[in-house]
Specification:
The complex is a heterodimer of chains A (about 120) and B (about 900). Chain A has helices spanning about 10-25, 35-45, 60-70, 90-95, 110-120; strands spanning about 5-10, 30, 50-55, 80-85, 100-105. Chain A is α/β, with parallel strands linked by helices. Chain A has a single domain (about 5-120), classed as 3-Layer(aba) Sandwich (Rossmann fold). In chain A, about 45% of the residues are buried. Classes of the chains: A alpha/beta (about 120), B mainly alpha (about 900). Chain B: It is found in: Membrane.
């Protein structure tokens, strides 16, 4: 059964590129354009992994991450945070909130695919 | 009716009792068991303030003015509440520098000036003469009332000739007694313990006598306070006396002047200075006197109104002189002995005053007037008179006699024309003239000798012209013409309405002008020049008396003298035996074996001068000592050097304080600047972070798609074209962003280039709309253009304004709905400005975002449909508009679109010339 991946980002072009990459790897892809939508879809669909942008309208990636990690029903959801703000404090904050991995934009597509693959293989 | 012999005998007996008390006091003082060294005696001796004026005159005053007699006692009460401030300092100064009179005080303060001491003495003598005359008048009229040499109204028959006038003999008798009390021997400190004891005694006698008469009138003649006041109220004429209305007829100014006058008098009257300052044994005694003396005044005033009202009720108005009520009421009731007691009380009050006043004045006359004159004669300076104590005593005794005889003269000249109180007030106004020089000298370093001279002289002249001369003129001894028409017939010089100042009683009027002239002259002349060394050193000694130790007065005196020279000098004035004794004591205090071992240092010179000052006054002592001392006179610089040792430390610490304050201020400024820098740094960080984010976002897409295309050449054509399209548009976005960031940075840092030309705004708007026409066409939107008929000229940068227009238009194009969208652009001229509105029917902007959209990287609109933008367009547009002095703002309602408006100022004359050239 194909793994389910949620792409949460407000930049349409980035969503398109990520969707293409993930689909090519054979994953089932879900899309959310802001933080609130992301939380709703995670609750409804319980994806295996979320590619989570930090700077999103309505709810930031940090808030989404915190909500997911504090919900016992969603413990299986892996979170890979993506951010255009590459500061160390942002990385530390994301990891402290329970994100499983962190990548800064612009990312290497190869690395991203590998990281997603390894994170899903841990299960 | 009493026989003259009885009255005279009782009077002499009483004087002898007084003398016995004084003698006892002196004996005890010599044995070292002083009877006056307690605060009760001190406070009672201050009651010498209450003279025959109080005893007889207050009743007379109350009989005509009701409570109008009160300010004379309110003033001293006020003065005593301030005693710790003024009196204590005066006592400390006088003790430290052995000052023996007011003249000595003022002369010493302003550089030991003979001239000043002499002037103060003359003012004191002239000023005191009416006051002494008042006492003589009281005694003599009391005597005539008692012995029945008066008419039915108790007005005395005037003595027909001077030789037959008993008052002359009263004056002479008092002179003899005063000499016995105060000028039997010479004392270096001018302290008279026996006299003080006698004064304290007489204070008790006069208080008791007055209280007895008061009780007699109130409870024997009438039926208590209630009875007297009830009857007075029933009498319409007397009821007026009991209301404050009568008393305030002189106005608040009158009350103020009277209270001020009494306040100054209780400090500066020569006899008050004598008992309060010179005769003070212990500064601590002042503490009790502060309440005891006012309490005494209260007590002696309790029965003033009852006696006055009682007299008026009993005799009726205008029949008996109210000044004699104290005597005439008991007499009218056949109480001869009671009247005699009252007379003794009055005699007591008068003698006490005369004795202390004349002693004080005679000390001044001797030390500050006669001695300085004698010292000027060369013959006197040479030691032809080995012992001058006899001469000194002779001068003083002569002065006492002289002052009393002058008092008698004034009594003969003016005594009949005035009531007791009015005479006393003339004296009060004279001593008030000492106040500026005294108080200024105690608290202000800037006062100079000339200033004090000018002030005293001006005050004295005005006093004499506005009070003294009118009093003589009204008695008929001078032509009244100048009273009514002014000096030389000049109306504005009328002595009692000087410069047209009318509406004040004569005392308030004189006090106002004399003190005004006095203070103004003192301050202005003092300010005219810097104090000399001598003045500066004395000023410091007086003003800073509490800072210096009482035992170690600073020495501003460089020079030395052998003890062989100094001892005979002191002996000349104090007597050989006394001089040897005090020098011996001085040597022993310094741990030396005897007089021979004393070193010729400035301290010794200072000591000798201080001893002499007690006997002949500060100014004369300075002259005498300098005749034997090899003194190098100190210049101002040198005195300042000495003073500087102390003041430098103070100045230094002051500077340190100032510097540390400046440092603190600088630190605070730096801290604030640092905060501002941190804030700027944080803003820059935020900006950088935002820019980074905005740059990375398109880069992310570009990199992802490029890698995907690179890694997988087999992507189908449709995707490939789509991906390449995204890459191109993201590259464009990146370029736009970089350009705008640079643009923004340039404008903000002021490095942007502005190419101003004459612009036709109508043409510019048309051009911008044309450029963006395709954008609107793509969205299927309509553009409406509302332009004025004529061109609107303006001087600005053409390309920058186009940039603003393009930004606003492209924003509108982005947000209009895909169906039925429209945008309306209008250009209009308003007074002094050109206005451009760009409206659309887009989604509108929520009110909380209206301000935010002009901030950098803050984009409005719904995220899903938000068009691509950098978030810098509006901030840059606003910067441009503001650069030209205009404003850019937005109005919007959600669901009904937005209107962006900007105005640009046009100089009116520019607009007109442009129009005229059209």
């Amino acid at each position: 059964m194909a793994k389910k991946i949620l792409i949460a980002d407000d930049e349409q072009n980035i969503v398109i590129s990520l969707e293409f990459l993930m689909k090519r790897e054979g994953y089932e892809v879900l899309i959310a354009n802001d933080g609130e939508e992301a939380v709703q879809r995670i609750r409804a669909e319980v994806p295996d992994l979320v590619l989570l942008d930090v700077m999103m309208p309505k709810k930031s990636g940090f808030e989404v991450c915190q909500e997911v990690k504090s919900n016992p029903d969603l413990q299986s959801v892996r979170i890979l945070m993506l951010t255009a703000k590459g500061r160390d404090t942002e990385v530390a904050k994301g990891l402290a909130l329970g994100a499983d991995a962190y990548m800064t934009k612009p990312f290497s597509t190869k690395e991203l695919v590998e990281r997603v693959r390894s994170m899903l293989a841990e299960h | 009716m009493l026989s003259g012999t009885v009255v005279v005998a009782v009077s002499f007996a009483y004087l002898l009792v007084l003398f016995a008390v004084a003698y006892f006091g002196d004996r005890r003082a010599e044995q070292g068991r002083s009877i006056i060294a307690n605060s009760w005696t001190y406070a009672l001796s201050m009651a010498v303030y209450c003279t025959a004026w109080t005893y007889f005159g207050s009743v007379g005053r109350a009989a005509s003015g009701g409570v109008w007699f009160l300010p004379i006692y309110l003033g001293p009460t006020l003065a005593m509440t301030l005693s710790w401030l003024v009196l204590l300092k005066m006592i400390r100064i006088a003790k430290t520098y052995r000052i023996t009179s007011i003249a000595d005080f003022i002369a010493s303060r302003y550089g030991k000036s003979h001239l000043l001491g002499g002037l103060v003495t003359i003012i004191a003598v002239v000023g005191m003469i009416p006051y002494i005359a008042l006492q003589l008048k009281a005694i003599s009229s009391g005597y005539t009332v008692l012995t029945g040499q008066h008419d039915s109204g108790f007005f005395p028959f005037a003595g027909s000739s001077w030789v037959n006038d008993g008052t002359l003999y009263v004056a002479l008798t008092l002179a003899v007694f005063t000499v016995l009390f105060g000028a039997r021997h010479l004392d270096a400190t001018e302290r008279h313990e026996g006299m003080v004891a006698a004064i304290a005694f007489e204070s008790v006698v006069k208080l008791l006598a007055f209280l007895v008469i008061g009780v007699f009138v109130t409870y024997v003649v009438f039926d208590g306070f209630g009875d007297i006041f009830a009857r007075a109220f029933a009498d319409p004429e007397l009821a007026g006396l009991l209301s404050l209305k009568t008393a305030s007829s002189a106005g608040y100014g009158g009350w103020f002047a009277m209270t001020l006058l009494a306040l100054l008098s209780v400090i500066f009257l020569p006899r008050q200075f004598q008992v309060t300052v010179v005769e003070n044994v212990n500064e601590q005694h002042l503490r009790r006197a502060t309440w005891l003396f006012p309490a005494y005044l209260l007590l002696i005033n309790i029965f003033v109104l009852p006696i006055a009202l009682g007299g008026l009720l009993y005799f009726g108005r205008g029949t008996v002189d109210p000044d004699t009520f104290v005597l005439s009421l008991p007499l009218a009731h056949g109480e001869g002995m009671l009247a005699l007691l009252a007379f003794v009380g009055g005699l007591s009050a008068a003698t006490g005053m005369v004795i202390v006043e004349t002693i004080a004045v005679s000390t001044m006359v001797c030390n500050d007037l006669v001695m300085p004159l004698l010292l000027r004669t060369e013959r006197f300076k040479r030691s032809e008179h080995p012992d001058l104590t006899g001469l000194l005593l002779g001068i003083r005794r002569g002065a006492i006699l002289g002052v009393l005889l002058l008092g008698y003269l004034y009594f003969r000249l003016a005594g009949e024309a005035y009531a007791l109180v009015s005479i006393g007030l003339i004296s009060f106004a004279a001593v008030a003239q000492f106040a500026p020089a005294m108080l200024g000298g105690m608290y202000w370093r800037g006062g100079t000798r000339e200033g004090a001279l000018a002030g005293l002289l001006a005050g004295f002249v005005v006093w004499a012209y506005t009070l003294m001369l009118p009093s003589v003129a009204k008695s008929g001894w001078l032509d009244r013409d100048f009273l009514d028409h002014g000096l030389f017939g000049l109306g504005f010089l009328r002595p009692e309405q000087l410069f047209g100042l009318a509406g004040l009683d004569s005392i308030s009027h004189a006090l106002f002008w004399s003190l005004a002239a006095n203070i103004a002259s003192y301050v202005l002349v003092s300010l005219a020049r810097v104090p000399t060394g001598q003045e500066a050193s004395q000023a410091t000694l007086f003003v800073d008396v509490f800072r210096r130790g009482q035992d170690a007065p600073a020495t501003f005196w460089r020079g030395s003298a052998q003890v062989q020279d100094l001892l005979p000098l002191v002996a000349r004035f104090l007597g050989a035996e006394r001089a040897r004794r005090i020098f011996q004591t001085y040597a022993l205090e310094r741990g030396l074996g005897g007089i021979e071992q004393l070193k010729p240092d400035p301290g010794l010179v200072q000591f000798a001068e201080t001893q002499l000052a007690g006997a002949i006054g500060g100014a004369s002592a300075r002259v005498m000592v300098s005749s034997v001392v090899q003194e190098e006179p100190l210049g101002l610089d040198e005195v300042m050097d000495i003073l500087d040792e102390a003041s430098q430390v103070r100045a230094y610490s002051h500077q340190l304080e100032e510097k540390s304050q400046a440092l603190e201020a600088a630190t605070a400024e730096l801290r604030a600047a640092n905060e501002r820098l941190k804030e700027l740094d944080r803003l820059k960080d935020d900006f950088m972070s935002s820019v980074t984010h905005e740059l990375r976002t398109p880069l992310t897409s570009i990199r992802a798609f490029s890698e995907m295309l690179f890694d997988d050449p087999k992507i189908d054509l449709k995707d490939r074209t789509r991906f390449l399209g995204i890459i191109v548009s993201e590259t464009e976005r990146l370029t736009r962003l970089v350009n705008q960031v640079l643009d923004m940075a340039k404008i903000e840092s002021g490095h942007a280039e502005w190419h101003n030309t004459d612009i036709d705004m109508r043409e510019l708007v048309e051009q911008a709309v044309e450029t963006t026409a395709q954008l609107f066409r793509d969205r299927g939107a309509v553009v409406e253009l509302d332009l004025p008929d004529e061109a609107l000229h303006l001087r600005a940068d053409h390309d920058r304004l186009v940039q603003v227009m393009l930004n606003l238009l492209s924003n509108a194009a982005k947000f209009v709905p895909t169906a039925g969208g429209w945008a309306r652009i209008s250009l209009s001229r308003e007074t002094g400005q050109i206005r451009v509105d760009v409206s659309d029917n887009g989604p509108g902007i929520p009110s909380d975002e209206l301000g935010v959209i002009f901030e950098k990287f803050r984009q409005g609109g719904d995220e899903h449909s938000r068009p691509q933008g950098t978030g810098l367009g509006l901030p840059i547009s606003r910067q441009i508009v503001e650069h030209f002095g205009g404003r850019l703002w937005v109005r919007s309602t959600v669901g009904q679109g937005s209107t962006f408006t900007f105005v640009l100022p046009v100089p009116p004359e520019n607009a007109e010339t442009v129009q005229s050239t059209q």
